[in-house]
């Protein structure tokens, strides 16, 4: 596994698809895994086969307006218990800034999947570079931050579920590889963060059709 501190700006807008899975290491660099390395790394280094999945949720955060981000931070930000602004959006300078503020509030969202396992919290997300995975003993580290940078206005997408199928995080890694998610180049409307988060969540929770971690159709 190779490592990098900045794979195409951590996969933000405009990155080039690499077909790799990135895992955030203790030094805040990204470990880069090719598809044939994922299962072994998850099993041998992360002991993911010992991490039984207990809960999952889809979350989202705003990639847009900086003024709204400042309001959100001033109101307390994402503290693990209150990931919503306490004060309404504000805009100064007339109609155009107000419209930009509204557009930033309703658009430019990035979605990702949170998983709680036996001993860890995990985040799984797709962006324009690859699929990124974080792990921490503290929920706030994975749902309030991405590689140490605050997620803007982080909130629940609306779907969450307790999980009791006795599957583990290694099963998630295998699902990502076996379903061909690392070869599914990012597309802004068809194969984006929302689609990946939904498919993974539905496979973990078995809440839609035949989707499950051991079924990659």
UniProtKB/TrEMBL annotation:
Q: Which organism is it from?
A: Mesorhabditis spiculigera
Say which domain of life the source belongs to.
Eukaryota
Q: What is this protein called?
A: Uncharacterized protein
């Amino acid at each position: 596994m190779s490592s990098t501190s900045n794979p195409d700006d951590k996969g933000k807008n405009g990155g080039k698809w690499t077909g790799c899975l990135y895992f955030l290491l203790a030094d805040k660099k990204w470990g880069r895994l090719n598809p044939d390395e994922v299962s072994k790394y998850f099993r041998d280094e992360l002991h993911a086969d010992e991490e039984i999945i207990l809960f999952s949720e889809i979350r989202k955060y705003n990639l847009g307006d900086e003024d709204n981000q400042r309001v959100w931070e001033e109101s307390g930000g994402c503290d693990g218990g209150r990931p919503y602004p306490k004060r309404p959006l504000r805009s100064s300078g007339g109609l155009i800034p107000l419209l930009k503020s509204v557009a930033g509030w309703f658009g430019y969202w990035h979605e990702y999947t949170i998983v709680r396992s036996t001993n860890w919290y995990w985040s799984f997300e797709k962006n324009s570079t690859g699929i990124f995975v974080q792990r921490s003993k503290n929920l706030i580290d994975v749902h309030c931050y991405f590689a140490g940078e605050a997620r803007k206005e982080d909130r629940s997408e609306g779907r969450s579920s307790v999980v009791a199928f006795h599957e583990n995080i290694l099963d998630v890694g295998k699902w990502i590889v076996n379903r061909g998610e690392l070869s599914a180049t990012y597309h802004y409307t068809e194969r984006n963060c929302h689609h990946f988060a939904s498919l993974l969540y539905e496979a973990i929770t078995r809440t839609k059709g035949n989707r499950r971690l051991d079924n990659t159709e």
